[in-house]
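User: Predict the complex.
Assistant: Input components as received:
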Amino acid sequence: MWGGSRALGRALAAGGWPRPPARCCPHVPNVGQERRQDLAQPNGSWSAAMRRHHQHLLAMTATGTWVRLPSYRHHHHPTEGTPGDTPGDTRLFPHAIDGAGAGFEFAMFLNATERRILCLCQTGPYLEGPPGMTHGGAIATIIDSTLGTCALAMAGMAMTANLSIDYLAPIPLGTVLLLDGRTERLEGRKMFLSCHVRAADGDTLHARATGLFIRLDPTKQRVKEEGSGQ
Amino acid sequence: MWGGSRALGRALAAGGWPRPPARCCPHVPNVGQERRQDLAQPNGSWSAAMRRHHQHLLAMTATGTWVRLPSYRHHHHPTEGTPGDTPGDTRLFPHAIDGAGAGFEFAMFLNATERRILCLCQTGPYLEGPPGMTHGGAIATIIDSTLGTCALAMAGMAMTANLSIDYLAPIPLGTVLLLDGRTERLEGRKMFLSCHVRAADGDTLHARATGLFIRLDPTKQRVKEEGSGQ
């Protein structure tokens, strides 16, 4: 499941995509410095392989075909009036684990023309399933986040309706993965996507997935936002 | 994906199920008190609904048909010789988030005769996807853990081969869920399972899933363990 973000909106607008509805408010007091830290930047926990592949992806943005997407721990506006609203301290699940490098380290790059997202991801030691291996739920999490970002790039706010994942080869903790998420087709509000999860080094195909996302009705979304005073 | 645990082995043996291979070593120095804390016990973060449903499930264990399963943050033997072995500080993904109640709070109950697991789960504020709602990856994580435990109950060590999830209704953060995981059929080393994710109160069906798990070859597993000095 996936919501929107202001930064992704800017990136999409730059790429010629329809911009999702504005959802952020700079006047909310608790939207402070920590909330604005871009976690898709290199830090001391990134392995040499992670840095090398990140550099390669950054180089691809030079022509403007690919756009780097920032990533934050929080929604920018935690009090917006959605059902089940939870004012207070929440975190986006892929950034929930404390400690750089302990959980997911990832950076996404969007190609709006190709309707495609690349996600570079290093799996930390707190993502364990079988001994020494990445948990199937952690793999599902980064796939859902990648495809959700791709769906958002197509049509604004969207929700996961189905996710089907084939786990083909175990992923040792510490592996650097390259997820390739693509829009396969659109049918009304339905968006059909696919994802391949490969080792960034060596090209092993660890998993492949399909995702069905449903675009939220922007009219209903606007009514909700107005109803909550936004 | 899912490995084994000593505690689950005991519970299965009590229920008449084949016990998975012993994988734990009480002599390892870093298997200390913190590593043995059972996190499937009530704590101050559990809501009144979570406590009430937990009491109901505990009452079902009185006749021995249902067995409560403990749950730990770590594998009991982090240095065992599996591929991708990661000695050092690892955490099982569903217990990776610091702070009682911030992430997943859950307790599982096994009915060995029915080949069925019930998992009571409270979704904390650090599991956010869309604003105020539980992330699709978090839902996949608790489903994979529930079905993985069910697969382990059938046949020892197993790995997820496919997970397919229909997300039917968004899950507000703080919801208490009851996951019902069942073994549908066995075909050689293949295990086909299903899972329904309902609100513990109100009975809303939030998600349903199917899982295909592959039982690991116990002979090869034994060779690996002997090869690593276990």
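Strands of chain A lie at 67-69, 104-111, 116-123, 158-167, 176-187, 190-199, 205-215.
Let me know if you want any component modeled separately.
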